[in-house]
Amino acid sequence: QRIHILSSLSGGIELNKLARVGDLITNVVNGGINIKEASKELKQIRKITVPWGNLTNLFSYAAIGAGMAGVLMGSWTDIVVAIPISLLVYLLVIFSARFKRTGADWLPLISAFMVGLLAAVAKLGLTELNIVLVVVSSITILLPGYTISTGAMELLGGNMMSGNIKIINGIIQLVKQAIGAWLGVKMIASFANFSNLASPHPDIYWQYLFVPLLAIGLCLSFQTSKRDFLATFLACMIAYFVSLLGSNTLGAIAGTLLGTVAVVIFSNSWTSKTGRPTSIVLVPGIIMLVGGLAGFNGFVSLVEGKIQLGEHQIQHMFLIAITIGAGLVVGNTLSHPKVTL
Known about the structure:
Layout: H1 15-29, H2 35-46, H3 54-71, H4 76-96, H5 100-125, H6 131-138, H7 145-156, H8 160-192, H9 210-221, H10 229-250, H11 252-274, H12 279-287, H13 292-303, H14 307-335
Helix pairs in contact: 1-2, 3-4, 3-6, 3-9, 4-5, 4-6, 5-6, 5-8, 7-8, 7-14, 8-13, 9-10, 10-11, 10-12, 11-12, 11-14, 13-14
């Protein structure tokens, strides 16, 4: 037995193309098209443009930045500042795509550095600004929490090699982001003498209003097709609010487990009725639960010399990843999914 490992350049999550591929596979299996014709169709799918237009991608980054800042109970100042910085992240993503492998390798470090630098500059005039919250909100779309979670899921499924590779790649990306953000903030903080990078969170209850905004941003960023948009949005809402309810009653880890199981059951039921790939609604739903935020904060704490806090946050990230992996297994066991993408 031989195992071949090929490094591929990720082009991001494109759920519209995934849906087209899923329909194509179903057509091939049902005998409606042969392999040669399917190969030509795949080339056409590769050329498909974004379903909502290019400007919508720009809006999605702003929505994710503002939505995450609101969900994390940031102040209005944090939310407003996170929007233009998130737009900068989008421009960096577009620019880095021109350099292919080199751009993908440097994007986590450079984007986090620029975000940290701009957030620190903004704090010079806005002393109440929460730098850490703004940084995390602005680079949420680039956090590798989903990669680490799927790696943990594969480990639970016995796929040791692919699972370890995904977890290691996710950790490397988190380290780059933490170092980049820390360097950007320190360049300004070294002469501005910030007393506290993370100002206290205000006691705000309207942050739940930003959950739908965050979900819409994720759906648009992942290029969900128009006919799948409502189902994908509902998956995000189910994942978040079931997790929130479980966390308030049984604890954070139990809440994450329940949220994962709920979104898996919903995704499998949707696939059974529509014949569409499960990943279309499952991936954005899982993103609402992932522990990339804890991992990023953990590595930032380590860089700042807060060893004990950093270790605790990183351990919490792995615990969330394992919990999500377990939730995927339990959800698939309860709902008996149809084999699909």
